[in-house]
Amino acid sequence: MESETQPMGRRVAYWRQRRGMSQQVFADRIGKSKSWVDKIERGVRRLDKYSVITELAEALSVDAGQLLGREPKRRPGLGGCLDQVEVESIRQSLERYERLGRFLEAAPIDSTPIPELRGAVNYCWLAFEKGHYPVVARSLIQLLRDTPVAEDRPVGGTSADAAELMTQVYQIASTVLRKLGEAQLAWLAADRAISAANRGNDPLLAGIATTRVANALRALGRYQAALDLNVQVAHGLISETGGEASSPAEISVYGTLLLQGAMAAALAGDATTSADLLDSASRAANILGRDANYYYTSFGPTNVMLHRAAAFVELGEGADALAVHDRIPPAALADLVAERRAHHHLDMSRACVQVGDIAMAGRHLVTADRNAPSEIRCRPLAIELIDQILHRTKGEPAQDMRRLAEEVGALN
């Protein structure tokens, strides 16, 4: 099973074997000797040139990132994305403990009224759903400062109310940081989200916070841990509600846990478990009966299909992913929030690369950029994909794709 914790040579061997190629066939395809391939796979020879890695990825019909085992560092400050200063400000906000001010001899901070904080948190969620990550970052820096103080000295509400707002702030922070490739910070924020949720009175917030922890674990390469956590909490939620999730909100949280578990299973190479969890999520979505957005989950039948397609991409089955995409009603996709639509088109671009349809891969990326530019311009995964599409394009890229590449600094 391919894993991000394995050396790159073993990942090459994993995908070569999965594609049904012998070392000799693979060597012939990339113009190398069988001995060269064998040394790469055994770790005797290092892969330290990106051009060679992309060549191997092309021959294996995978993303270069699947061989690298990690997302590359983003290019800061390009395309209206967050720069390192903003990320560092979020880091500092996560590392501060305003509630300990009286012990740290810090000046007391005025407590923001909870109704005002609730409005600010809702605004931050809306900015996230539109894919306006720089706006989200600026909001987070202030909210990460204000919500701990509000829990300690609540005005216009209770400490539990403030804790529930705080867990949402940490969840947004974790999700955005993960997208930016800041996996360790994402895990820290998600862990804080769990703690804050447990101090509130809404158990469903703890369920959603679990998905953030699990997603951070996925970003750190701990796929099995992410899978187990999502499934265990989903089962616990059902147990607490008497064997079935009865309210639309409960169904949405339960289904979202199953979807994230399915993605973790796919990343672990467990296609059977991934499919089983997706089928369970589909049944929950059918009970819900529509696409909804309880707890900002976007859960419903359409989002299940998006995750089914995304799982196929992580399994390296691009053709199956594109077949699922073709079955998604365009109107239903258009009704989802911009971040979800852009994320899906990014996944479909990866699927197109896997099947060798480079022109269509570029069109999906351009569509994603039109829906939510930051989802493409801020994510290392997307920047790497742009590089790969340019590398594999024969002749000049399409005008829209060339413009996108220029705007993110992918063209010299």
From TrEMBL:
GO molecular function: DNA binding
Location of the HTH cro/C1-type domain: 12-67
Signal peptide segment: none
CDD domains associated with the record: HTH_XRE
Protein's recorded name: Helix-turn-helix transcriptional regulator
Source organism of the structure: Glycomyces paridis
